[in-house]
TrEMBL record, chain A:
<dbReference type="GO" id="GO:0005524">
    <property type="term" value="F:ATP binding"/>
</dbReference>
<keyword id="KW-0813">Transport</keyword>
<keyword id="KW-0547">Nucleotide-binding</keyword>
<dbReference type="InterPro" id="IPR025302">
    <property type="entry name" value="DrrA1/2-like_C"/>
</dbReference>
<dbReference type="InterPro" id="IPR003593">
    <property type="entry name" value="AAA+_ATPase"/>
</dbReference>
<feature type="domain" description="ABC transporter">
    <location>
        <begin position="10"/>
        <end position="244"/>
    </location>
</feature>
<dbReference type="InterPro" id="IPR027417">
    <property type="entry name" value="P-loop_NTPase"/>
</dbReference>
<dbReference type="InterPro" id="IPR017871">
    <property type="entry name" value="ABC_transporter-like_CS"/>
</dbReference>
<keyword id="KW-0067">ATP-binding</keyword>
Automatic annotation (TrEMBL), chain B:
<dbReference type="Pfam" id="PF01061">
    <property type="entry name" value="ABC2_membrane"/>
</dbReference>
<feature type="transmembrane region" description="Helical">
    <location>
        <begin position="269"/>
        <end position="289"/>
    </location>
</feature>
<dbReference type="InterPro" id="IPR013525">
    <property type="entry name" value="ABC2_TM"/>
</dbReference>
<keyword id="KW-0046">Antibiotic resistance</keyword>
<dbReference type="InterPro" id="IPR000412">
    <property type="entry name" value="ABC_2_transport"/>
</dbReference>
<feature type="transmembrane region" description="Helical">
    <location>
        <begin position="127"/>
        <end position="154"/>
    </location>
</feature>
<dbReference type="InterPro" id="IPR051784">
    <property type="entry name" value="Nod_factor_ABC_transporter"/>
</dbReference>
<protein>
    <recommendedName>
        <fullName>Transport permease protein</fullName>
    </recommendedName>
</protein>
<feature type="transmembrane region" description="Helical">
    <location>
        <begin position="51"/>
        <end position="71"/>
    </location>
</feature>
């Protein structure tokens, strides 16, 4: 599209941030490597205090790394700060609008700070307001806006200067489910119409499903990085839970006919298999006991997150412990 | 609901739109003006502020001035309110300008500062924009008071009005710079208010705005001479009383010459000194801001 497209949208090598807290040095980010291809939506997950915010702040030129380098949009975040800044849009957790000004005035301020010409600014402001469905509220003072509207306006503002990379730090935090869904609709819409790269942190696992790739960060390090599908597959397997007339017989037949160990958890016969939905018909034909109900559960990103961060490993099999190992089943 | 259908197809070109990197100085000047203009827009949105800020100076002139006028001897026939007027005009920008400067603390608290901090502009343009914007806003708010010139027996001379506006702007810039400087160190709104009061009140009383600085006891005279605001108030009074025919006795009493170690300081030098101090404060604020934010 233009000569500015070159290499990955974000590339970090050995990125490290150390804080001094009294006499001790705290390593907030420990030599992480990142590579985000242009046009991807990249999810950045991790528990609170994992180092996500510090990482995003270094990529956005707000903080300088202690060591390591990062390039965003092809420019070095330390040495070419302003070039990076012109190419990124930012939406913070904390709102950063001027509540006393109108929506349009907020956007115009932004366009001016980023050096847009008058005609470009007019056109972009119209476009982004249209995109987040706030065109009819452009002359309203932002103080009158609801939380969701403010957040939409912030996303619009982050796009006014046509950035190559949009950084969103917890864009849906504190919003109701409908508004959260609407915001993701806008982001999808954006992806379809432009080749923008979106870098988003969230701790809503369902939202991570929207991403092309996910990195999970913990204790200042990236513990795993892959597509959502691959991550879910990596921890294995679907879970099938069934209620039967005779659990003893069911367990025996499952072992004998399907070659799978089954256990009883919370009053249900439970097995772990790679493709749950394909196994269900065989249960009916081969068990020879009366089946009252069957539930197939796919592994969620919640499971992935818990597995890799290990903070609170939730055992999805119930209190007795796991009958299937989380990792390495396929 | 969805805008997908209505949006122009041309939006798929985000990269073409990037503004070319302008000459740095031009962009920083423009950024300064953008930050300045925001202060003006905010004033426009907040008309209540314009009105309430006028109340105090009007009270000073007409209530305090009239009340004290009966017991104060001006040394001749001059109304005490005529004497008081330029001083009160100066104090009116004192408050509005200092608060405009302190508003940087609000910007930080409510998040908007971050929007400015991550933009491709220098920290200095944020500070200069805040200072100039605050000073213009404070000057504009005081303009209404100029309409009262006639009510205290001062002629509506265009030259005088221009001189007064110039002094008001300089004084406003001084106080805004001081407010911004405080804001670079003070991080909470709770602390900002009392600390700014602590600074403003002595500056007001020690500038000779409300009483003549002739015949003050030594310690008070020293403090008055150290207060930069004195060099805004005295020139304003000088310009105002110039237009009236004062007797020699009144001149000496109401408009004493300011001396530095025996040297009679001309009005121009007084204003020049204020300008230098103001520039120093802005530069200091910009420096602290750059290293701490």
């Amino acid at each position: 599209m233009s000569d500015t497209v070159r290499g990955p949208a974000i590339e970090a090598v050995g990125l490290t941030k150390t804080y001094k807290s009294g006499d001790t040095a705290v390593e907030a980010v420990r030599s992480i490597d990142l590579r985000v291809e242009a046009g991807q939506t990249y999810g950045f997950l991790g528990p609170n205090g994992a180092g996500k915010s510090t990482t995003i702040e270094m990529l956005c030129t707000i903080r300088n790394p202690t060591s390591g380098t990062a390039r965003v949009g092809g420019f070095d975040v330390v040495r070419e700060r302003d070039q990076v800044r012109r190419r990124i849009g930012l939406v913070f957790q904390q709102q950063t609008l001027d509540l006393q000004l109108t929506a349009e005035q907020n956007l115009r301020f932004h366009a001016d700070l980023y050096g847009l010409g008058r005609a470009d600014a007019e056109r972009r402001i119209d476009e982004v307001l249209e995109m987040v469905a706030l065109a009819d509220r452009r002359s309203d003072v932002v103080m009158k806006f609801s939380g969701g509207m403010k957040r939409r306006l912030e996303i619009a503002r982050g796009l006014v200067h046509a950035p190559q990379v949009l950084f969103l730090d917890e864009p849906t935090i504190g919003l109701d489910p409908q508004t959260r869904a609407a915001i993701w609709d806008y982001l999808h819409d954006l992806r379809q119409r432009t080749e923008i790269t979106v870098f988003v942190t969230t701790h809503y696992m369902d939202e991570a499903e929207h991403c092309d790739r996910i990195a999970i960060m913990d204790h200042g390090e990236i513990v795993v990085e892959d597509t959502p599908e691959a991550l879910k597959s990596s921890i294995g397997t679907d879970r099938i839970a069934l209620r039967t007339d005779d659990d003893e017989v069911a367990i025996a037949r499952i072992r004998e006919r399907l070659g799978v160990e089954a256990g009883v958890h919370e009053g249900q016969v439970t097995i772990a298999v790679p493709e749950g939905a394909q196994v269900v018909p065989r249960l009916f034909t081969e068990l020879g006991v009366h089946i009252l109900s069957v539930t197939v559960t796919r592994p969620s990103l919640d499971d992935v997150f818990m597995t890799y961060t290990g903070r609170t490993i939730r055992d999805s099999e119930g209190p007795q412990g796991s009958v299937f190992p989380f990792a390495g089943r396929r | 609901m969805t805008t997908r259908d209505t949006a122009p197809a041309g939006t798929a070109a985000p990269l073409d739109l990037l503004p070319e990197v302008r000459s740095d100085r031009a962009h920083q000047l423009r950024a300064t003006w953008v930050v300045t203009r925001r202060e003006l827009l905010r004033l426009k949105q907040d008309k209540a502020r314009m009105v309430t800020m006028l109340l105090q100076p009007v009270l000073f002139i007409f209530v305090m001035g009239t009340g004290l006028g009966s017991i104060v001897d001006t040394g001749g026939g001059t109304d005490f309110r005529t004497f008081l007027y330029p001083g009160v005009l100066a104090t009116s920008v004192l408050f509005t300008a200092a608060f405009a400067g302190i508003s940087l603390v609000w910007d930080r608290e409510f998040g908007f500062l971050r929007e400015m901090m991550v933009a491709p502009i220098s920290r200095a343009s944020i500070i200069w924009g805040k200072c100039l914007g605050g000073a213009i806003v404070a000057t504009l708010q005081s303009l209404v008071l100029l309409a009262l010139l006639g009510t205290v027996g001062i002629p509506y001379s265009p030259v005088l009005i221009v001189e007064l506006i110039g002094c008001l702007f300089l004084g406003a810039l001084l106080l805004t710079a001081l407010g911004v400087l405080l804001s670079t160190r003070i991080k909470t709104i709770q602390a900002a208010m009392p600390i700014s009061q602590l600074l403003i009140m002595p500056m007001m009383f020690l500038s000779g705005s409300l009483f003549p600085i002739s015949g003050l006891p030594g310690w008070l005279a020293v403090l008055t001479h150290l207060n930069p605001l004195t060099y805004v108030v005295q020139p304003m009074r000088h310009f105002t009383l110039e237009h009236l025919s004062l007797t020699a006795a009144e001149q000496e009493r109401l408009l004493p010459v300011i001396t530095w170690f025996g040297w009679e300081v001309p009005v121009g030098v007084q204003l020049g000194a204020v300008a230098v101090i103001t520039l120093g404060l802005v530069a200091l604020a910009a420096r602290i801001f750059r290293t701490t934010e």
